[in-house]
Design brief:
Elements lengths: L7 E4 L3 H12 L4 E4 L13 E2 L1 H9 L3 H7 L5 E6 L4 E6 L11 E2 L2 H12 L5 E4 L3 E8 L2 E8 L2 E7 L1 E4 L6 H7 L6 E14 L10 E5 L5 E5 L5 E8 L5 H15 L10 E14 L4 E2 L2 E3 L5 E2 L6 H21 L6 H29 L7 H4 L1 H8 L4 H8 L17
Parallel strand pairs: 1-2, 1-11, 2-7, 4-13, 11-18
Antiparallel strand pairs: 3-6, 4-5, 8-9, 9-10, 12-15, 12-16, 13-14, 14-15, 16-19, 17-18
Protein name: Putative monooxygenase
GO molecular function, one term: FAD binding
Keywords: FAD, Flavoprotein, Monooxygenase, NAD, Oxidoreductase
Length: 405
C-alpha cells in the first residue's frame, strides 16, 4: 500500500460514517469518506442519543456544538390514549451526568460532524462517488466507484460500510436479499410538526399506548418542533396516508386538532425491520450501524447502538494502525457487536414496539416488566439513575484486546 493510500475507506456520509471518519482522523489515521450523493442527507430522521452514544460523541469533541443546538430532555412518559400516565422516566436526577440523554435532529448532527471532519488534512471526502463493486486483494480492500470523471478503484487496508439499511457494501458481501431477520407487519409514519403538546400535560417525550392510535410524541428542537411517529397498516401507500392524515391526527392527538391547529414540516412513512447481518467482518471489509443491523425506532436503540458500534470499531482500527492489535480484533468486534444486538437491542426494541399497541393499556403497567421497573424506582433518584444507566450494557471496551494489555 503506497503512502498516498488511506488506511481506511469509509462508505457512507451518514452520522456513522462521519463520526468514524472523524475519530480516525483525530488519531492521525489517513481516511477517505466515499458518498454517492453530492451533499449530506437533509432528512431529520432520528433525534435522541442515549448515554452510550453521548459518550462516543463527547470523545469525538462535538458535544459542545450538539448542546448548543440541541437540548436535554427531562422526562419520558408512557400514557394511555385517554392521557393516563402509566410510568415516567425522570432524567432530572442525572443533570450533572456528562453523558445524559440529548436531543438533536440527525441532519444537524451530520452538519456538525462534517464541519469538524473538514478541519483534518488526513481526511478526504469524495462526493458523487457511488460504490459498484468490492474485492479483497490479498488483504487490501478495493472499492470500485463511479464518479463524475469515470470509474476508478480506491484501495485501503480496511473498508467500512456505514452506508445504511440498504448498504451496498453489505449486499456485495452477502447478496441483495441476505439480511436475516424480519419486517414488522406495520409501518411507521414519522412527522415533524409544530403543535403544543405541553398544554395537555405531556412531557418532553411521550409514548401513547393504544391498540389503534399508538404513537410517540417528542419535542425535538428548541423552537418547539415535535416528532410524531405513529403506526399504520403496512398495506397503505404514501398517497393513502396523506389522504387520511388530517382525520388520523384529529382522532389521534390530544385536543382533536384541525389542520389549522398544527404545521407539519416533514412526512415520511417507512417500513420497520429487525435485522442482523450474518457477520460484521469479512476480510478487510467491516460493517457498522444500520449497514449491519436494524431495529424499530421506539426507544432510540438503533441510533444509539449504531454510534456505539462506531466507537468500538474506531478503537479496533486505531489499535491495528498503531500496532497494538492484530486482525483478530475485528472478529471480536463482529462477535461482540452481534451479541449486543441479539441479547439486548433486538429484544428490548421489539418489546418497546409491541408495548405500543398493547390490547389493554389500562392494565399494561401491571403486566409489563419494564413499566414495573420504572414505577418501582420512581421515588428513589439513585435507583432511577441506575435504571437510566442500564443501557450501558450495550457498550464494550475493545482496547482490552490490545497486545499491551
Amino acid at each position: 500500500m503506497s503512502s498516498q493510500e488511506p488506511y481506511v475507506t469509509v462508505v457512507g456520509s451518514g452520522p456513522a460514517g462521519l463520526l468514524l471518519s472523524l475519530i480516525l482522523a483525530q488519531n492521525k489515521i489517513p481516511v477517505t469518506l466515499v458518498e454517492k450523493a453530492d451533499t449530506l442527507d437533509k432528512q431529520p430522521r432520528a433525534t435522541h442519543y442515549a448515554g452510550p452514544a453521548v459518550s462516543v460523541l463527547r470523545r469525538a469533541g462535538v458535544m459542545d456544538d450538539i448542546a448548543a443546538k440541541g437540548f436535554f430532555p427531562e422526562k419520558l412518559t408512557f400514557r394511555t390514549f385517554d392521557n393516563k400516565v402509566l410510568a415516567t422516566i425522570d432524567h432530572t436526577g442525572v443533570s450533572d451526568d456528562p453523558d445524559r440523554l440529548v436531543c438533536l435532529p440527525l441532519n444537524q448532527l451530520g452538519q456538525i460532524l462534517l464541519s469538524h471532519l473538514q478541519k483534518h488534512p488526513n481526511a478526504t471526502i469524495l462526493w458523487n462517488h457511488e460504490v459498484t463493486d468490492i474485492k479483497d486483494d490479498n488483504g487490501t480492500g478495493v472499492v470500485t466507484v463511479t464518479a463524475p470523471d469515470g470509474s476508478k478503484e480506491l484501495r485501503a487496508r480496511y473498508v467500512v460500510g456505514c452506508d445504511g439499511a440498504n448498504s451496498k457494501v453489505r449486499r456485495l458481501l452477502f447478496g441483495d436479499w441476505e439480511f436475516p431477520g424480519k419486517t414488522w407487519d406495520t409501518q411507521v409514519v414519522a412527522t415533524n410538526a409544530y403543535y403544543d403538546f405541553y398544554k395537555f400535560g405531556y412531557e418532553d417525550a411521550n409514548f401513547i399506548i393504544d391498540p389503534e392510535h399508538w404513537y410517540m410524541a417528542a419535542r425535538i428542537t428548541r423552537d418547539g418542533m415535535w416528532r410524531v411517529s405513529y403506526g399504520v397498516p403496512a398495506s397503505l401507500t404514501k398517497e393513502e396516508l396523506l389522504e387520511q392524515r388530517d382525520e388520523k391526527w384529529r382522532n389521534m392527538l390530544p385536543g382533536n386538532p384541525s389542520p389549522e391547529d398544527y404545521r407539519i414540516t416533514n412526512f415520511s412513512p417507512y417500513k420497520v425491520h429487525q435485522r442482523l447481518a450474518e457477520s460484521m467482518r469479512v476480510g478487510p471489509f467491516v460493517l457498522a450501524a444500520d449497514a449491519a443491523h436494524l431495529c424499530n425506532p421506539f426507544g432510540g436503540l438503533g441510533l444509539t447502538g449504531g454510534i456505539v458500534d462506531v466507537g468500538g470499531l474506531a478503537d479496533c482500527l486505531i489499535g491495528l494502525y498503531e500496532g497494538k492489535a492484530d486482525n483478530s480484533i475485528l472478529d471480536i468486534y463482529s462477535k461482540v457487536r452481534r451479541e449486543k444486538y441479539s441479547q439486548f437491542i433486538d429484544p428490548i426494541s421489539s418489546a418497546n414496539l409491541l408495548r405500543m399497541f398493547d390490547k389493554d393499556p389500562s392494565t399494561v403497567s401491571q403486566r409489563d416488566e419494564s413499566l414495573q421497573m420504572i414505577n418501582g424506582v420512581k421515588d428513589d433518584p439513585t435507583k432511577m439513575k441506575e435504571l437510566i444507566g442500564g443501557i450501558n450494557v450495550i457498550t464494550y471496551d475493545f482496547t482490552q484486546h490490545y497486545r499491551s494489555k
